[in-house]
Every structure is written in C-alpha cells, then in structure tokens.
Design goal:
InterPro entries: Plipid/glycerol_acylTrfase (IPR002123). Pfam families: Acyltransferase. It contains six helices and seven strands. By secondary structure, it is of the alpha/beta class. Helix 1 packs across helix 2. The N and C termini lie far apart (35 Å).
Length: 201
C-alpha cells in the first residue's frame, strides 16, 4: 500500500522496530519492481511482517494478508486497513480473501502471505504450507518469491532477512490442479528455509 498514511506510519514505526530488532537484508534486488509477485516468508514471530516491511522500504505498493482475529479490535482494524492489510479466515476456504489477493496482484501490487498460516518456532519447515498461495499466483499470473526471516529475535541482535529469486509456479492445463498447488507451495517454502541454511523435509 503506497500512500501518505503508509509512508508516515513507516517513518515512525520502522526506526523503532529496527532499533529493537536490527535487520540484515540480503537479496533485495530479487524483488521485482515491475511485475506482480507473492512474497512467501517463513513465520516464527509476530515481528515477522513488521520487519519484512522494514526490509522492503517505504516506497512499495504492498498488500498483506492477515488473520481475521486481528480485525476484531476496532482501533487495530482501522490501522491495519490503512496499512494495506486485509483479513483471511484461516480455518475455512475464504473466497473473499482469495479474490482480494488475485485482484491485488492483477492491479500490479506486491502481496505478502505467510503460507504456513501459523507461527513455526523451529528452524525447519515442520508445518505444511497452504496450497492456496500457489493457486493465487497461478490465477493472477504472479510469481512466488521465497523469503527467509531469522527465527531468533533477541533484543538488539541482527535478524537476517533473505530474499530468494522469484519463480513461476509449474502447472498443467488452464488453472492447474490441487496437487500442483500444494507442490508449488511446498517448493516455495523449501526454498525459503534453504535460504536460511535450514534442513528441509
């Protein structure tokens, strides 16, 4: 979400966040500026989306899929919407969130989604990602971009954020199959954890 509100919030919050958790960014050149892409990071902490926003900078056209529980708090709901976050019901097939995601990418914005759907504390992918992320990429014509965010977040210690190379999901037919969606989701998270040197199943 490239807006005055986003830029102002970034200017206030980013210095505070990176003071507490400095970031060491690698591979930012892999993030395309002229084509839609789905950022697919691992997820170990509530700090992850904040630090990833800090790594991307303030001049990005970004939207973020966030769990719907966050939107039950009125003040937080208003802030999140202004920051380009939209809700998803993780326990069900949320058609509205899927359509929102596809339209976001077709409009040329960048989409941030945590494919595992929950926080994973360890350094390897023990939770299978949701295949829907690949379906969104396929139906919008976007690429998947793996991102690794360091799982250890000690105060004032650097957190690595590593952007991998984007890749087009592989599929057959016009829209692909559920099995192909899952295979692509597995692959993007395998690549994400590999960026951090973590063993992958």
């Amino acid at each position: 979400m490239s807006s005055k509100f986003y830029a102002k919030a970034y200017d206030i919050l980013a210095p505070m966040a990176t003071f507490l958790h400095p970031i060491a960014v690698e591979g930012l050149e892999n993030v395309p500026k002229d084509e839609p892409v789905v950022l697919c990071p691992n997820h170990s902490s509530n700090w992850d989306p904040i630090l990833l926003i800090c790594a991307l900078g303030r001049e990005v056209n970004l939207r973020i899929m966030g769990k719907n529980q966050l939107f039950k708090i009125p003040i937080l709901r208003s802030f999140l919407r202004k920051m380009g976050v939209f809700p998803v019901d993780r326990g069900h097939s949320d058609i509205g969130a899927v359509k929102n995601s596809i339209q976001t990418l077709k409009d040329g914005a960048m989409l941030m989604v945590f494919p595992e759907g929950t926080r994973v504390r360890g350094k390897k992918n023990t939770v299978r990602p949701k295949g829907g992320i690949a379906m969104i990429a396929i139906r919008s014509g976007a690429k998947l971009l793996p991102v690794y965010i360091g799982v250890k977040k000690r105060l004032f210690a650097k957190v690595p954020i590593i952007f991998g190379k984007p890749f087009a999901p592989e599929y057959t037919g016009r829209k692909g199959t559920a099995e192909e969606y899952q295979a692509n989701a597995d692959e993007v998270m395998r690549r994400a954890y590999a960026l951090g040197g973590a063993p992958c199943r």
